[in-house]
Amino acid sequence: MNIAIDIGNTRSKLAIFNNNQIEDIVVDDFEVVFSSLKKIPFSSGIISNVGNSIYTKKLLSFSSKLLPMSHELKYPIVVKYRLFKSLGLDRIANVVGSYSLFPNEDNLIIDMGTCITYDFINHQNQYLGGSISPGISLRFKALHTYTENLPEIKFDSNEKKLIGDSTHSGIESGVVNGVVEEIKGIIDNYQNLFPKTNIILTGGDTAFIKSIVSIKKNSIFAQENLTLIGLNSILNYNA
User: Taking the complete model, does pTM exceed 0.85, yes or no?
Assistant: First the structure.
């Protein structure tokens, strides 16, 4: 039995794998995830942390069976990223997760979180890189923080009308519809260059984005547990 722990900026995830299939998942704050871990008789595990490094130290002190994700591990893909050690570990896990699901295919991974990350791996299993832009909630916060009078708006998953008739609805339209058009445009650009590219959506806002992004092709997939799937593959590859 493997476990994979993904410590994010706002929440943590713990997945239990049996025969490389997810058996159960805990999604909560770190202390709840840590309490759940204590009850699991796992044989090996892996940790990815983009949040508080103190949490990783606490986990490693708890069990020697846990492997911290790092750039020094072995990976089942060819990394062409120029500054590999500057690459986020969660992005590596996502790419390996896409490789596990769709090996020998062109894959674009779009992770909808605090930031929106785009990562591309080609059919030769070469990770080429990608891009980063602000996520939905971060855009709302930036408009409030860096302007004099604009309010901070909390994101909800309802579709937004194009023409806002108030400051509130105008901000919602600009941010949410802007993100949707950004994603659609980037998908089109990748599929123009690589026509058989799979699009894999993951992250906290995945369901919302998939529901409103125009799906013209049958190659768009939502996999909210992509990072965990990738972590389990990396764990197995380094066993």
Answer: yes
Give 12's strand partners. 7, 28
Catalytic residue (one of 6, 24, 28, 90)? 90
Give the integer Cα–Cα distance in Å for 145 and 131: 24
Could you tell me the CA-to-CA distances from 208 to 52, 90, 113, 150 in Å, in that order?
A: 27, 21, 12, 25
Catalytic residue status for 90: yes
Residue pLDDT tens, the chain, 239 long: 999 999 987 789 999 999 999 999 999 999 999 999 999 999 999 999 876 789 999 999 999 999 999 999 999 999 999 888 889 899 999 999 999 999 999 999 999 888 999 999 999 999 999 999 999 999 999 999 999 999 999 888 777 889 999 999 999 999 999 998 999 899 999 999 999 999 999 987 777 776 666 555 567 888 989 999 999 999 999 98
How far is 142 from 135, CA to CA, in rounded Å?
10
